[in-house]
Structure formats: structure tokens, C-alpha cells
Amino acid sequence: MFTAGAESLLHQAREIQDEELEKFCSRVVKLLQKDEPGPDAVDALQRLFLIVSATKYKRKLEKTCMDLLQTTLCSPKCPEQLQFLCAAILRERSPADSLSLSWDHVQSSQQLSLVASVLLAQGDKKEEVRSVGQHAFRVLESRQPEGPSLRHLLPVLSKVTHLAPHTLHEDQTNLLSKRLVEWLRYASVQQGVAHTSGGFFSTPRARQPGPVTEVDGAVATDFFTVLSTGQHFTEDQWLNVQAFSMLRAWLVHSGPQGPSAPDAGDRSEPEGSTLSVLSAASTASRLRPPRERLRDKAFEYCQRLVEQSTRRALRRGDADLQKACLVEAVLVLDTLCRQDPSFLYRTLSCLKALHVRLCGDPARARALLPIAQFFLSHGEAAAVDSEAILQHLFTRVPCELFHSPMLAFEFVRFCGDSLPLFGRNLDILKRSFPNLFKLLAWNSPPLTSEFVALLPWLVDASTAVEMLHALLDLPCLTAALDLQLRLSPAASERPLWDTSLRNPSCLEASRDPEFQALLQHLLRAKASGTVQRLAPLHQLLQPMTSCARVVQCAEAVPTLLQAFFSAVSQFADGALTNQLVLVLLERRDSLYQVPQYEARVHRVLSSQLLALCALHPSLVVDLAKELLEFVGSVSSVHSREAMLAAVAWAVGEYLSVSWDRRCTVEQITRFFEALEALLFEVTQSRPSAALPKCPPQVIAVLMTTLTKLASRSQDLIPRVSLFLSKMRTLAQSPAPSPVHGEEDAGAICTRATELLTLLKMPSVAQFVLTPSAEVSEPRYHRDANTALPLALRTVSRLVEKEAGLLPG
Amino acid sequence: MVHAFLIHTLRAPQAQDTGLCRVLYSCVFGAENSPDDPRPHGAERDRLLRKEQILAVARQVESMCRLQQQASGRTLMDLQPQSSDEPVPLHEAPLGAFRLAAGDPFQEPRTVVWLGVLSLGFALVLDAHENLLLAEGTLRLLARLLLDHLRLLTPSTNLLLRADRIEGILARFLPHGQLLFLNDQFVQGLEKEFSAAWPR
């Protein structure tokens, strides 16, 4: 569809020069000034529109051309096509400083609507919105309720209300409310007459039209609504449709004190609320203020829609509309109850019955969300427990319908929007995180940012560890869900799983009971409080690591981990931090093997490890055994570099008496020996295809850590000095080193030298490498006696002098 | 209410990055309240901002559509009907929604609902708390109408010079950005009106 021809057309439109454009404009002017502008004028205007809209920069159009466009738009005998084109061009050029549209000669409301669209696009610098609104209301006042052309005016009013609700006067809002009541409730229930164009065979008396029907074909039982159908429609039926379409926004914006405050008018009727509970009919006959009457009629309309939605629609389009109407009805009822709490009792019974009906209908699951939101907002006021509704929502819906992108999006938005309303029920949300993760795992691109905002609310001290495991296993969850869809007996019209991967080999194997147990745990609906090792599942689902959906999910996980950790560190105490670090250490090599996933996760985990250690330094001593095991078990540095560097750095920083009194010399020595052995292995082994060389950063970190440990347990200094000088010699060796490039070798050499220098003065080394907490105070840097740079300089000079005095 | 409607190009996921995502048509209903800008070129800046916002939405829709297609293992061309007489099965076309945070790129938070049909993307930019079921239905309806009345499936036509028809359809089915609850018969009635006023 978008061919090369179209591309070149677009290119031409952008590249047209100013002089050419001027000539074209004068041609347009000539064509428009003719008495009967023909198809040439239409063609020219179409091209002009393309030229103006194709570029984001402003195009200079002649003033005569602009004026003529405005005049043509407002002229009474202009054909529709030209009107639309003029309006489109003027709107494309908005905001424009030189617009001077006038309403005076505009007769047809279609034209009025087009003029309004141009004015509303100006950005309200000269109060255009107010003037459009005022003019539209004047037209509304002057016409009869069944005026033939109010159809084009209502959307204008709706837009003005939306953009600038404060520009409407009380009597104007009352007028529109009155009209809306008439259109909503008292539209004709007879079908409209066909507009015959006349002709030789048409009869003078049109056939008597029948009554309107419901969507299932039965004759309509009550007043006309958007779910009533017929062959042709009358004007007031059109207005009924538009009135309902704008109803919710009007109710919200036309309140006197703003959307959420209840109407002050209710206060003047102290018995109004009890009366309306007892009988709706009696209140309708008294003359209540227009706003209240509108609310009554809106309530009746919504109840009727709810009833109409039980019918089985004959056409698919109508079935879809029924769902949309259900949602809208609940939303309008919610607004009504906010504005006037007397509606609450009737609404509750209606919605409870609706909820029961919808629970068994997966096709209408999306309507459960506004119902749940209603109960969350008003449940307290009505002393109704919304727990059962929420339990059903969070337990059943994500399991069955995670594969629908729109439902997933709306569900997560519901969670995000309703957070302040959950109250006591927040626990249900927190415990349902495995189900919520299913929505995320299947639809990661649009939902990642939503979850980053939602995670701080989901994270809880009791489930944090389980959640961390779940996040690390998220791509595996995606694969498991895909598998579940393939295996499930319910066949939908088209396959929901990844159709580019046909019959993966794990399909049969997954029926094995051992894997079934693990799969059930992965696909659980609620936080179970236990953690299971899913390594066998990772292997089983290996064939699915190339699925695009799994890869997309894997790309989202690092971001989610960051969000998780920043949320957890707000409240984690020492014990929880220890547990989380243990998870990090344990899971480093037990991840689902999606390409590049491990590397990315390691980067995040290593930086988070350091952050956690900075928060709770004593965890290094608490977990000394596990960290030692980690260091000792890392047989090859390849792909563990990030974690290893982080652990080594943490040990170097925090394994000292100044951070935790329980730190013993044995611990320091044990760590020293383990790290020394590791560094030895790393530098001695020859690189090969399977074991690429160790990055110099890791070597530097290991050397620094060894030095730090030695500075705390000074018996180790001779050992480390020996090692460092060996490293230096190795790095300096003139033979082209197979292990490191020249730059890297130089860096290692420099670092080794620095460390050796420091170690020559052990007390300075201690000061530099194990600074106490007071070092962060400014005094340490301003006071000439204690400033660190000064101390270092002094040491260096002394050492150099000493070196000069030594022989050789 | 709908803040904007746009049609843009969708490139196939497998194609190399030749060319850019092009916005073929866009319509903004009303304007965002622009901050007071007394500088002489404030109006131009506003227009530039508006165009860039639309382009940003188009690019995001394109990448969301591409990701969804890749994840489901399908291509957009799977939708191509056998003959040009059959309707395009729009209920199988990829559809999705995502949220735009405040300031990125619109001043207020907004939701985008999008639909991908062959090599065209259709998108509605909505206010934050809209009835998404209605928006979905309206978007499918607009796409169907545009495909039919502009005959977009025949290879030689394009919609760049047919803005009048697009405007005509929008004026009836999405007037001033108002989402309408139209049942099937109403849609048919409006379509007949449109065909009568704008003969092909």
C-alpha cells in the first residue's frame, strides 16, 4: 500500500520551493474564485493539504489564499468536499496568528462544526474555546429540541466542556442538562422513515415504520438506548446516541465544585436521600433541579443497558458494543454515586447481580475491572466487603486471559489506578504477584514501565525473596505459559502461542510428573511462601529460549530487577538483606539460558550486591562462609567476572573490625588465601578458546582486595608484596604477553606498583585502604595534618628517597 | 475523548531499516493548553511540537506492533485476503495499547490504542481514563471504513491525496474526537449517508 510512488509524492511535497508554492497558491485562488468550483479545485486543495501537512515546519501561504480559504469555508453554497478541505488546511496550519473566521454568515451546523474545529485547534491563546462554547450554546438555545441539525453541535459542546469547563455559566449547564434528559429518556421508540429521494415509483405516503428492536431481534420493551436498533433512525434517536456518548464527561465536568465534590444542591433536601431509596417514581414527578433530574435519568439509562446486555446479540458488532456499554454503564454509575451517595444502595444490588453473571463469562472479563473499582471506591461507604470480588479477580482472570494484550493492559492500569483505594485489601494484591507476573511475562513491551511503577507496592518483606526468584525466572515463565497454551485442550480460533516455533521437543517431556510439579509451582496463582529450585525446568524448556516473546521478556528483566531492589532497600533490615544476597549468590549460575540474559542479569546483580553491602556492611561477616564458598568455587572467571569483582570488592571494603566487631583474623586470612589462589590461577592459566583471558579490571580488583586485607592483618604483608612484585614482573616482561595487551599490562603494572608502594608504610596503608567512617567528613580533606592527598604525597616522596638510597 | 488520530507506515520486522516511519495522516482534535509563549514565533513552535508529538507516537506504535508480531510469530502480510473482494479480517489484526506518561510526549498522561493492518498503522491517542473497549471498537470501525472507502487494498491507490474523504469519515464517526456508541444499524445508516454525500 505504501508504494515507492507514494514515497516520492511525499518527498515532492516536502521539497517544493517557496516560489513554486506561491504560483500554486495563486492557481488555487483562481480556481476557488470561480462561481462553480469544479473537480480541479478539489484536486488543487488536496495537493495543497498534502504540501502543508507533509512537513513539520511552517509553510508560507499567501494572505489572499488564506483569506479565500476562510471565506470558502463559511460560504453557504460551498460543496461539502471543499468545505472539508478548507477546514483541514486551516487546521493543519494551526496555530495561526492571522485567522479571522467569523460565525455570522454560517448557516448550516455542519459548517459551524468545521469552523469550530479550526478555532479549537488554535490553542486557546485568544480564548477561542470560550467563544466557540458561547456561540454553540446560543445556537442550542435558539433551536427547538428536535432541531434538524443539532447532531453536529453536540460534539462541539462536549469538546468545549472537556477543554474548558469553567467557561460555562450555570444557566447554560442547566439548559444542556435539561436537553440531555429529554434526549436520553424520551427519544422516540418508533423507527425512522427512510429518506426516499423521490422518483417515478415512490409512493407519496411512506410505509408505516415499526417499533425499534433490541439487539436480539425482539421488539423493544422500554425506552430507546444505544442498544436499540432499527432500519432507519429519527433525529432524536441520533441525539440519544450522542447524549449517552458524552454523558460521563458531562456529569464529571458540569458539577459546580469540580468532579469529585458532591452536589451542594443535595444539602437543601434533607429527606431527599431516603425518598429516592424508597421510590424512584415519586421523585421523577417533582420538579427537581436539572442536574439532579439528569442523574436520575442517567441511572435509569444505565440500568436499562445492564438489562439489555443480557440479550444475545445477532451481530458481532452489536455484541462488542454490548461489552463497551456494560463498562460505560458501570463507570457512569460510579460517577453518579460519587456525586450523590443516595444512588449507592440501588447501584450495589444491581452491580452485585451483574458481577455474579459476569464471573462465568470469560468473553466479558474486561467488564469485571470497573466493577471491582466501583466496589473499592464505594465499598467502605456501603459497608460491603469487596474482598470476595478482588479474590476472584486476582485469582482467576490473569490465569485464564493473560494472552489478551488489551485485558493485560487494562488489568495492570486498574491495579495502578486503584492503589490508594485498596486499603486493607492491599494484601490480596501483594499475594497475587505470581499471577500479575504472568501478564507481564506474556506482554512485556507495553507493561514493563507500568510494572516498574507498580513494584514498590507489590514488594513486601514476607514475599521479597520469593519475588526475587520469580523475577529471575520470568523468561522461564513466558516459556511455560507458551507451553501451557499448546497443551491446553481449549482451542481458540487461532493459535495464541508462537506459531513460528512448531512442536518444540519439550512438549511431550513436560507431561512427566516430576516436571509437572515444577511447572505447577512456576504457574502458581498466589505467593506460596516457598521457593523451589527450577534448574531441571530450565533445561527442559531450553528449546524455547529462541522464542521472540521469551527474548523480549528477558530484555525487560534487568530493568525490573533495578526497580525491585530500589523498592526493597527502602525497608529491608539486616536479616532480609542477608537472604537476598544469598539468593544473588545462589542464582548466579542457575538462570534460564536465554542468549545474553545471564550477562545482563549478572551486571545488575553485581551492582545491587555492592549497594546492599553498602547499606548493611555487616552482611559480609554474617555471610562469610557463603562468600568464601563462592570465591573458592569459581573455577573459571569467564562469565562470572561481574559477580566476582563485586564480591571481591565488597570483601575488601567491609571485612574489617571497623565495620563489624565480629570480624576475626582467621576470617581475613581465609579470604586472603582463597583470593590469592584464585588470582594465581587466573594469571597463570593460558587463555584458550574455552577460557578467554581475565579482564584486567578483575585482576586489579583482586590485587587491591588482597592488599586491603593485608593492611588489616599485617602478617600477610610479606606474602602479598611478593605476589605483587611477581605480578609486576609478569606484566613488565618484554616478551609479547599472550595473556594481556600492552595497555592492560601497563594498567596492571601501575596498580601493582601503587599497591606495593603503599604497603611499604603499613600504617599509611591501613589509613588509605581501610578508612574509618569519619573520612567522609570535610575535616579530613581541609585539615593540613590529616588530609589524605597530603599523606599520600608524603609517603611517595619518602619511599622514593628510600628507594634511591637502597643499593641496586 | 480522543486527542488525536493518526495513520502511519508500518515496516515489516524483517526488513532492514530503510527509510523512516512516515505519518501519512494525522488529526488533532483541539489543542493542548500551550504554555504562555510571548515570543514572536510561539505559534510555529507549538505546531512543531504538535507534529513531533504525533511522530513520536507513530514510532512507538510501530515498535510495539513489530514486537507483538515477532512474539506471536506472525507477519502483517498474513492478513492479506485472497482476493480484493474479501474483507480484511480485522479481528485478527494486531491490536494493543500502551500508556504515555505526563510530559512524554504530551503534557498530560495519555493512552494510545493502535491497530496494524498490512503496512499501515492506525492509532488513537486518548485521555488517560477512557473506555478502552469502545476505543478498540471505534478504531476497528475506522480502519474498516478507510480500507473500504479509500480502496486501500488495490495497489495503485494511496491515501496521501485523499484527505477529504478521511476527514469526511472522521467527521461522522469520530466528531471532534467524541467516541460514539454506534450499533451496527447506526453504522450502516451513517455509511449510507457518507456514500451519498461523497460518491466514489
Can you tag this structure with a few keywords?
heterodimer, A: 808 residues, mainly alpha, 39 helices, elongated, B: 200 residues, alpha+beta, Beta-Lactamase, five-stranded antiparallel sheet, 4 helices, 5 strands, 37% helix, 18% strand, globular
Structural summary, described in words:
The complex is a heterodimer of chains A (808) and B (200). Chain A has 808 residues and is an all-alpha fold. Chain A is built from 39 helices and no strands. Among the domains of chain A are: 169-190 and 213-254 and 289-384, no CATH class; 779-807. Chain A has helices spanning 4-15, 18-33, 39-54, 63-74, 80-92, 109-120, 128-142, 154-163, 170-185, 235-253, 272-278, 280-285, 290-308, 316-339, 344-359, 368-378, 387-401, 405-422, 426-431, 433-442, 444-458, 464-472, 474-487, 506-509, 513-522, 535-540, 548-568, 574-587, 597-615, 619-622, 624-633, 641-654, 665-684, 696-712, 717-732, 742-759, 762-769, 779-782, 788-805. In chain A, α5 runs parallel beside α6, α8 packs parallel to α10 (235-253) and α16 (368-378) packs parallel to α18. The longest helix of chain A is centred in the middle third of the chain and has 24 residues, at 316-339. Chain A starts with a helix and ends with a helix. Chain B is α+β, with helices and mostly antiparallel strands and 200 residues long. Chain B has a single domain (1-195), classed as Beta-Lactamase (2-Layer Sandwich), CATH 3.30.450. Chain B has 4 helices and 5 strands, in the order ββαβββααα. Chain B has a 5-stranded antiparallel beta sheet with strand order 2-1-5-4-3, with helices on both faces. In chain B, α2 (132-149) runs antiparallel to α3 (163-173). Chain B starts with a strand and ends with a helix. The mean pLDDT of chain B is 86. Chains A and B meet through α1, α3, α5, α6 and α8 of A and β2, α1, β3, α2 and α3 of B. Chain B: Pfam families: AP-5_subunit_s1. Chain B: InterPro entries: AP-5_subunit_s1. Chain B: One of its GO terms (cellular component) is late endosome.
